[in-house]
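Submission sheet (multi-component)
Chains listed below:
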Amino acid sequence: MQNVEKIDVIVVGAGPAGVAAAVTVARGGKTVVMIDRADLAGSKNMFGGAVYLNSIKDLFPITWEEAPYESYISQNRYSFLTESSSVEINHKTLNYPSAATVFRPKFDAWLIEQAKKEGVFYAPKTTVRALLLDDKRVIGVRTDTEELKAKVVILADGAQSNLAQTLKLRKPIKPKDLILGVKETFYLENSKIKERFNLVGNQGMLCEYFGGLSDDEASGYPFAMGFLYTFKNHISLGIGINTEDLIKMKKTPYELLERLKSHPDIIPYLDDARSIEYSAHTIPEGDFYHMPKLYTHGAMLVGDAAGLVNNVHFEGTNYAIYSGILAGETALDAVKADNASKRVLSAYEKRFKKSFMYKDMKSYRNVVSMLRKMSNSIFLKYPKKMDEFFTLFNMVDTIPKATKFRSFALKTGRAVALDVPKIAKTVLEVLK
Amino acid sequence: MNDKFNKRIIEDKLSHVKYKTDKDSHIIVDEMVCEKCTTKECLYVCPARVYSEENGKIKVEYENCLECGVCKISCPKKAITWSYPESGYGVVYKYS
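Outcome: structure written.
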């Protein structure tokens, strides 16, 4: 960084959160250096597959349409699996799509390019090992090769953020705080993707899979889901699983992925598809009750590093961008006032608390824990009941329908009734 | 856990992953602690099967690491020291 005289703000991590923070500072006319450990931009980053277009538009209002999008999600499918059956709900819309699939290396490289155009100094291939402290004040970073000082440091270093832990902004991470995502990307030519998933033009699909990873009710179904995204000439198939549940299950993530791949509903999708990459990453569980402190003297946390996600709606990159913008604005105020004390940076938390992110995380505060407690119901019992119902409905034989339906209703009614109070309580909280 | 099956499927998956391998390991395990460990979560939570057992010792194939960090948080004995590989080294995703 010999070419930069005096750094106002250092951003650690060049994902969507880091880029949003850095661009916001650069737009305010201050000197900002964005550091990333990857040699090739985005080559350490991984997610399921789609970004939310409104957040990209809000960050880059002029160029957002030029980003390297793969397909625009026009179809959301929810598939409930048992070992030998599937029941699907499919929502297709021809209205303007709100999400698009991307490959992170290509997409993040584009984000970084936009940031550089607006004056952000980008330092790739640079790993931050520690923060420089003066008493309790963060005054810079130590990389593999040098020490860099700045007035404000923004930590956008992902779900595991060691740096945030050294600052004691968050407690040591426990297995239940993280979701492990693993996925495989397959090459499959565009015409076949369109045929198989009923898509035209640049339409894409996300399918979420409930169930199908275990049938062991006694030891409990893990809090885990499958996903399938379509790209232009690729599809990604993966699972997200709570790490504590994975430990309890004593299974490898890749054998679970293989199990999903070998489901009779998925096998035909992968016919002719060639596996070209396998990847893994962790994401925060997004627990409102254990949110890290977002700032301290001289430093702020954004995106995954701050645990900002809403996993129920697959939200993460949008939280990264919006929290990055808020931290960037606060950093600008601090640099202008030449004061990055806790008191000045607390404006970041105030801004955050006014945002939709805080409101959503608050109203959803018990949703994930409820869903986790109901894993057996959601991932085992309901798919099985759906299968039983449709099997019954479609079976033509000589048993009177009333006899068959009565027995089904009695058994199912009791099983579902037990869950209703739990679900009702959590839904009411969301609406409050 | 069918070990042979697991080994075969992960070897196939890892054959499609690109790496720029560092000459030094970014993962260090505390052998003394590992020897006494009875649960050995690392053997199955790691999505890249970096950890395996050889003659009662934990073998670390750091060059296969996908850099998710799950091993570190899953080890109940805190016997895994996991840090990012040297700048520019490690996994290189293209379609992630």
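Remark: The radius of gyration of chain B is 13 Å.
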